[in-house]
């Protein structure tokens, strides 16, 4: 039988299991995807831990995952945009992507460019559309200065590049081990640590004309720091500190604000043409999902951690 990641109660990585599940069938307007790769994301860990049980309730057993890339294995009635055998990238809103087979709305799929690796394709949706929405929310203009916290993480590493494309000066907050990567992508690095006052002082040293916009991908007080730096709340966006949205009147645009196959296709084209670099921190086979989330939850990786579901795009079941 096909395999899928599930959990039956809230908790740490130990609640994750790779279970046997029936092979699903697509209904009208849907496609069945034989998944080859799927990304993992911090929000999934927080949902599984029960942190967002009120905001996004879970039904047990719950699956996991939104990002996916693979091959169309079957289509339902009325599907015309993809066909059996197509290599695709896409997403599901049903917490089901970490599986060998997934039924997806056909409108949530786009063709995978040949120049985009499977590892990148399967992990692009959540981080890519989140970064896209967050940068659009703060609207950096040429010559302005935008700061990104968590600048080497999955979302942050893309947000700094998308912000740089606007012509803005970009400052990225990250550990010293990621500073060379940031410089190579046109970003001025600033070290995290030693408290928010110290980080704010470092930012002031490299932004003599002040900070115009701030994208917070990490949480932990960065919104308050941005306000203290004089950034208008309308030019601050956080994807990690929901309490700060109400407390400071800042924006909270993230994945949902740009979740479409059109945006995903645009991002994939940027990757294919070399305009967007998606760092891959590590890959794990599906049956090592616990180890993958253990590494993710340390919050020290550069870029994406990817589950490889099937080599060569061929699943069995």
Quick take:
The protein has 317 residues and is an alpha/beta fold.
Structure write-up:
The protein has 317 residues and is α/β, with parallel strands linked by helices. It has 2 domains: 3-124 and 279-313, Alpha-Beta Complex (Quinone Oxidoreductase, Chain A, domain 1), CATH 3.90.180; 127-256, NAD(P)-binding Rossmann-like Domain (Rossmann fold, 3-Layer(aba) Sandwich). The protein is built from 10 helices and 15 strands. It has helices spanning 42-48, 118-121, 125-138, 156-165, 179-184, 196-206, 222-228, 242-248, 261-272, 289-296; strands at 3-7, 17-20, 30-39, 62-63, 67-75, 87-91, 101-105, 109-111, 145-149, 169-174, 187-191, 213-216, 236-238, 280-285, 304-308. The strands form 3 sheets. Strands 3, 5, 6, 7, 8, 14 and 15 form a 7-stranded mixed sheet that branches. Strands 11-10-9-12-13 form a 5-stranded parallel sheet, with helices on both faces. α3 crosses α4 (156-165). It is globular, with a radius of gyration of 19 Å. The termini are close together. The model is unreliable at 313-317 (pLDDT under 50).
The proportion of residues forming helix, as a percent range, comes to 25-40%
**Domain module tally:** 2
CATH class of the largest domain: Alpha Beta
Overall SS class? alpha/beta
CATH level-two architecture of the largest domain? Alpha-Beta Complex
At the third CATH level, what is the topology name of the largest domain?
A: Quinone Oxidoreductase, Chain A, domain 1
- CATH superfamily caption of the largest domain: Medium-chain alcohol dehydrogenases, catalytic domain
Large-scale geometry: globular
Residue-averaged pLDDT:
95
